[in-house]
Amino acid sequence: MSTAAFEVIAALVRLRSGIVLGTDKAYMLDTRLGGLMRENRLANLDALAAKLRAPGNEHLAAAVTEALTTNESFFFRDGKPFDHLRRILPRLAAARPAMQRLRVLSAACSTGQEAYSIAMVADSLGLGARLEVLGTDLSQEVVRRAREGVYSQFEVQRGLPVQMLVKHFRQEGSQWRISPALRAMVRFETGNLLADLRPLGSFDIIFCRNVLIYFDAPTKTRVLSALADRLMPDGVLYLGGAETVLGLTDRFATIEGERGVYAPVTRLALAG
Ligand SMILES: C[S@@+](CC[C@H](N)C(=O)[O-])C[C@H]1O[C@@H](n2cnc3c(N)ncnc32)[C@H](O)[C@@H]1O
């Protein structure tokens, strides 16, 4: 692949998703884009780049971007955020009118393990009926899988306690399907974190984990600011273990002793 072809593809992916592909990632283009190149009868990445440069290739541009996302996820990833969620959910539920549902966003939800883990925590607290979880991701394919709620043996063995597996999943051959009760608590939509997030409404809790790592600093700042606008003043934001707000925004403050958990800084506090 020529440097020019790599640059065309990397620029397109960055513009559409925020994902920065360094030249050290050039090796993955052939494998990740091989299927698309065959489908479109393109001999190589240079031919793909040329086609992307031509107008009217929106569908191909979206497919290339999607193919270059990293969708790794697993149930109860890193443990700690879910321990914190277990403590904060009853407090938030008590602070809202009884009829009001708590809204939780699982942004960049990939194949849905995070959103379903949140639902399992709420269910274990008897708060299932109070919760509404929205999972969003740029990739149509992972959103389709998340909606389906069917996981392989390998996927359910990663992080999911066996009692939760037995309680919330039904075995179908070599796969496991999420229970209708849990499925009903979670809704999935395709959604880009770079887009206008206002139509999503406000949330009591936002999970945005293991996606900011792919963005450059200005994009992280822009996304964090958009999330701050969507979070209730007493809500919480969970980031991934390798992510932080420090040096990026003053819209969130760290919570002492709680790694990866952030509280919104109210506009009033900012002004004062
Ligand atoms: C590594 S997964 C993280 C999944 C889950 N949050 C977790 O921590 O296990 C990153 C996800 O971010 C999604 N993604 C990347 N850029 C995005 C964007 N601009 N908007 C929404 N989702 C994006 C990818 O499609 C991918 O599914």
Radius of gyration from CA coordinates: 20 Å
The rounded distance between the terminal residues' Cα atoms is: 54 Å
Q: N-to-C SSE series?
A: HHHHHEHEHEHHEEHEEHEEEH
Named CATH topology of the largest domain: Rossmann fold
* Count of discrete alpha- or pi-helical segments spanning 4 or more residues: 12
Write down the overall mean pLDDT.
95
User: Helix coverage percent of residues?
Assistant: 40-55%
**Into how many domains do the coordinates divide?**
2
Strand % is: 15-25%
Q: Sheet with the most strands?
A: 7 strands, mixed
Helix vs. strand class? alpha/beta
In CATH terms, what is the architecture of the largest domain?
3-Layer(aba) Sandwich
CATH class of the largest domain: Alpha Beta
Number of separate strands: 10
Cα shape: globular
Name of the CATH superfamily of the largest domain: Vaccinia Virus protein VP39
List low-pLDDT spans. Answer: none
Which molecules are bound besides the chains?
S-adenosylmethionine
Give me the oligomer status. Answer: single chain
- Please list the strands of the largest sheet in the order they lie side by side: 6-2-1-7-8-10-9
